[in-house]
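Hi L.,

You mentioned the student needs an example of a multi-chain input paired with its predicted structure. This one should do, with 1228 residues in total across all chains.
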Amino acid sequence: MSWNSFGRLFRFTTWGESHGPAIGVVVDGCPPGLALDEAHVQRFLDQRRPGTGKNVSPRQEPDRVRILSGLYEGRTTGTPIAMMIENVDQRSKDYAGLPPRPGHADAAYDAKYGFRDPRGGGRASARETAMRVAAGAVARLVIPEVTVTARVAEIGGEADPERWESLLDEARGHQDSLGAIIECVAEGAAAGWGAPVYAKLDADLAAAVMGINAVKGVEIGEGFAAGRASGRASLPLMQASGIDGGIATGHPIRLRAAFKPTSSIGIGGRHDPCVGIRGAPVVEAMVALVLADHKLLHRGQTGGESR
Amino acid sequence: MSWNSFGRLFRFTTWGESHGPAIGVVVDGCPPGLALDEAHVQRFLDQRRPGTGKNVSPRQEPDRVRILSGLYEGRTTGTPIAMMIENVDQRSKDYAGLPPRPGHADAAYDAKYGFRDPRGGGRASARETAMRVAAGAVARLVIPEVTVTARVAEIGGEADPERWESLLDEARGHQDSLGAIIECVAEGAAAGWGAPVYAKLDADLAAAVMGINAVKGVEIGEGFAAGRASGRASLPLMQASGIDGGIATGHPIRLRAAFKPTSSIGIGGRHDPCVGIRGAPVVEAMVALVLADHKLLHRGQTGGESR
Amino acid sequence: MSWNSFGRLFRFTTWGESHGPAIGVVVDGCPPGLALDEAHVQRFLDQRRPGTGKNVSPRQEPDRVRILSGLYEGRTTGTPIAMMIENVDQRSKDYAGLPPRPGHADAAYDAKYGFRDPRGGGRASARETAMRVAAGAVARLVIPEVTVTARVAEIGGEADPERWESLLDEARGHQDSLGAIIECVAEGAAAGWGAPVYAKLDADLAAAVMGINAVKGVEIGEGFAAGRASGRASLPLMQASGIDGGIATGHPIRLRAAFKPTSSIGIGGRHDPCVGIRGAPVVEAMVALVLADHKLLHRGQTGGESR
Amino acid sequence: MSWNSFGRLFRFTTWGESHGPAIGVVVDGCPPGLALDEAHVQRFLDQRRPGTGKNVSPRQEPDRVRILSGLYEGRTTGTPIAMMIENVDQRSKDYAGLPPRPGHADAAYDAKYGFRDPRGGGRASARETAMRVAAGAVARLVIPEVTVTARVAEIGGEADPERWESLLDEARGHQDSLGAIIECVAEGAAAGWGAPVYAKLDADLAAAVMGINAVKGVEIGEGFAAGRASGRASLPLMQASGIDGGIATGHPIRLRAAFKPTSSIGIGGRHDPCVGIRGAPVVEAMVALVLADHKLLHRGQTGGESR
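Structure written out for the whole complex:
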C-alpha cells in the first residue's frame, strides 16, 4: 500500500524519486490570500541542503524550487499549491547493480513491491524530505503566530556542543556515523488546538516525526523521563509540556526525536556522518504542518476562538 | 475538533463518557467470516479491568461487553461491529464541583470547548481505552498469524520486577504515583506490511501508542539508544527492529511506550499508583489494530503476497 | 469492503442490522454547546416511521431513540454523540429460509461476503436510514440558518397530488409498487460553502442522495432538462440552481432524487407500495448532513466569512 | 475549503490553473509492476483534446504529458505517479479585466475565497479534467478485465446522431450552445465490488460524475425512468443495472450524465457549442477511477475473490 499524503484539512502529497527527473509536492487546503513566493520556500530548503558543510553530504543539489500553481499576484488562491525541484546531480550509476544495502529499506521494498528502483534509495531517500520542508514553509504562513524552532540537542550521546566537531571528525575518519537527538519547541499555538481522543495533537506530532527517515523515537514534554519518575517529582514538569489530554494548553510545545546513525557506512565518500543534523529543519517542517492542520481543524469545529 | 476514529481500512470509532450511561465502539472494515463472540472480547477486557489487584484502581467495573451488530451465527458478516459496555458504578458525585485538576486535560478541554462534562474526565478518562481493547480483540482475529505481547519493562525507573511491589507500596503510602515503561513485541507480521512515506508502519504505531492516555514517549526498535549510538555499534541492532523504511521486514517488531505517573494525586483512595500497569493491554490492542489495518491495506494494493 | 461512515469534519457512522438487537449511529465532529435532546431527534424519526399510514409499511416500530453520549446538561460537549434504537418488532421468522430476493441486494451480498444475514435485508434494509435521519437531526443544529425541505414531486410518473391516492390504492390491490421523485430545497446555505474540484457541494450531495436505498438518479438544479436544453434557454435557470462550480451561490439549492419502485413485490402484506414516500425525510437528512459538513469545512479554511 | 483529491485506496490529486505554467496530477496507491508509459496516457488525452474538430474549442493545446515519477524501466513501482502538462497556449490577456461571467463559477469563487485568478476559469476550467483523464488512463491498468466506454446519447434533446451536425451548426451560428447526455457502460467489474452503506459503488460513481464540470444530473441503470415506473414494469430492468444495494452484480454497469450547455456564450470564437461532447472521455476516466479504487478496496477486505 502506498500512501503519500499527510494531514486532514491542511494536506500535502509528495512524489518523486531521488534519481528520477524531479521531486515535488502538492499542498492542498491552504487558505487563500496568504503572501507566498519561491524565495520564502527556498529559504527553508537552503537550511537543509546538503553540500553546505563538511558534516553533511557533499552532493551539490541546488534544490531550486518552482511554484507551479495556486498563486495569483503573489498570494495563495485557496487552490492546490504544486512545487517541484528538478534533480540535476543524480549519478545513478554510482548505485547501479548494488545489492540491497543493510540498514536501508531496500530489502523491505523488495518484500513489498516485488521489484524496486535501485537508484539511490528511491522514495525512502532523505531527498524526499526536501518536499516536506517546502510544504512546511507554506504551513508557517498559516500559523504566523507560532514560532517553531528545532535544534540539535545531542550527537552520539554528547550534549555539549563544544565536543561535536571532534566527534564528527572522528566518525568521518573511521567511516563511522553517529546518532542525534533533535529538540523542537513550538511557541504560540493557541490553547484548544488538538482533539481529545484520536486526533490528539501529541499523537499527530508523533506520527509526523516518527515518519521522518531515520527517526526511531519521539518524546513529548518529559518523554521517557516521565516514564521513570514519580508523580510528585514530575507533576510540575508535566504542566509545562504544552499538551494536555491531546489538546494544546497555550504553553510552548516541546518534543524530541531520536535519529539513528546513517546506514550508508562504507558506500563511498558521499554519506553524512550524522543525518540528524539535517533532520532539524525536517522536524520543524513537520511540526509546522501538524500545527497548521490543527489550527484549521479547530477553527472548523468551534469557529476558532479559544474560550 | 473532535476526531474519534482510527484506522484506514480496518477502522474503529469510540464514544461515551466515563460517567454517562454507556461507552462503546463501532469497528468497521472487518472482513467477513471470522468467528467472534462476546467471550473473546471479554477475555481481553478483563486483562485491563480495574479492581483486580491492589495496584490498580479499586473501582468495581464489570465491563460486561455486548456485541450489538455485525454477527450472524457467530461469525462476522463484514458489516460494522458495534460493542457497548454500560456504566454501572459511576459515582459522579465524587467529582461534582471539582475545579480543573492539574495534570488532567480539564483546563485544555475548557480552552477548546468552552464547557466540559466535569464528571470523571469525560472522554479523556482511561475508561475510554476499554473500547480500544475491545476493538483490538476483533483486530486480533484479522491477524491470527501475529502474536502481540506487551509487558511492563520498568516501574519508576526500576527494571527489576522484584523491586516493583515495594516501590508501589511506598508510592501508595505517600499518595504518590510512578511512571512506567511498557514494551511490546509483535511476531508474525509479514514482510511488506507498511508503506514507505506517510503511512509508515512505525509512524502509524507511534500515533497509535502516543494517543494512549498518559503516554509521553514512543520508541521503535532501539529508539533513543540509537540516537545516542554510532553506526558501527548499532547497525546489527537496527536490522533486528522489525521495520525498515516504514515497512515490516518479517522480523519481530519491538516498541516501547513511556507512561507518565498518574495525575490524580490526592484525589482520594480511588487512583492507580501506576497507570502504566493497566497500559500494557491497551498498547497491545493498539498495535494489533494498526497491524490489522496494514494487513488489509497491503492486500488491497498488492494482493497481499510477500514477494 | 465495508464503509459505514460519511462526512469529512461532521461525520457519522451507522451500525446495526434490521433484525439484530439494535441499530445506532455515532455522530462525530459536532461543535460543542448546541442544545440537543432526544425529543428533537425523535421528532424527525417520527416523520419517517412506518406504520403511520396505509401507504407505508404497517410494521409497528416505536423507533424510540436514546442518546448515550456527547451531552452534558442538555448541550453537546464536542465529543461523539451516540444514538441507539432497540429493535422490538423483528419477526425474523418471516424471512427465514427465503432465497435471495430479486431486486434486493441479497445476491450482491452473497457475491461480496460469501455469506449473509438472511433476516430482513441486514444492513441494506431501509431501517438503516432511520439512523441517517437521527444524524440529520443533529446536523440541523449546526446549520440553524438553513431550512431543508423535501417533498414528494411525483408518484408513478404522476405530478398531480390529487391522483396519488388512487394510484397507490391500485398498486396495493395488484401487489404492485410505484417509483417516486422527491424534490428537496435548502434555503440559507451561505455563498462560499463547497469546493471547486473534488469536494464540490453538488458532488457530495449526489453521493449522499444516491447512497439512499432505492435511489437511481439525482439532479441538481435543472438536471437532465439542462442536458436537453440550449444555453440561451437554460442560462437564467442555471443561475438559480444554488450551486456554481461546486460552490454555493447563496440562492436556494434544489435537487431531485428518483426512487425506484419497491422490490418486495408479493412478499406478503408488509411492504410499502411506494418507498419513495418514506424517502423524503431521508433526503432531507442527507442534505442537512452534507451542508453541516461543508459549513464546518468552509469555516476551517477561511474562518467562515463569506467575502 | 479546498479538496483536490479523489479516491480511497487508488487516489489522485490534481493541481494547476488553466492559465498558469502547468497542470498536473499525482496518482497514489497504484499497485506495482504494471506496464505504463507516456504514450498510453497520451492516447486517452488526445481523445478529449480541443482543436480536433469544428465542434470543439479551436484552442491548440498539445497536451503533451510527462510522467515524472513512479516508474522504473517501464513499470510502476508502487510509488506515486506524477504527471504534468505544460500550458503553452494561455492567452490570458483574452480574459483580463473581465467581470465575473454569468453561469461560470466566478462569482462563487469570489464569495468563497475573497479574490480569484481571473484568467480563464482557474481551477474550474475544463482543462483541469485533462488530468482526470490522465489519472483514468492509469486506473485502466488496474482493471484490465474491465472495459469502460462512454458515448454521446443525446445532444440538445435529440437522440438521433444524424441530426446532431446540423443542430451544432445552428447553435454555432447563433452563438448558442447545447446540453448533452452521455451514456457510459462498464463491463467486467466483478460481482462484489462496492459496499452496502456509505461507499456504495453507485454513490461513488454519482459523486465522481456529478463532480465533472457542467454535469447537472446522474442516473444509474434506469435512473429517473425507474422513479416514474411501477415495480412490475421495472423489475426486470433493475436487475440489469449492474449494481444492487451498492454492490456490483457482475452485469454491465450503466450510467448516464447530463451536461448543461456551455456557459461561455458570446465570449468570442473560442467556446465549444457543446461541452458534453468532450465530456465522454472524462466520464469514462472517472468511472475507471472509481472501479479501480473499489477493486483494491474489495481485495483489501476479502482477499478479492468473488465468492
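You could point out the following to them. The interface with chain A takes residues 1-5, 9, 11, 13-17, 20-24, 26, 28-30, 32-33, 66, 68-70, 72, 75, 77-82, 84, 112-117, 122-123 of chain D (CB under 8 Å). The domain at 5-302 of chain D is CATH 3.60.150.10 (Chorismate synthase, AroC fold).

Best wishes,
N.
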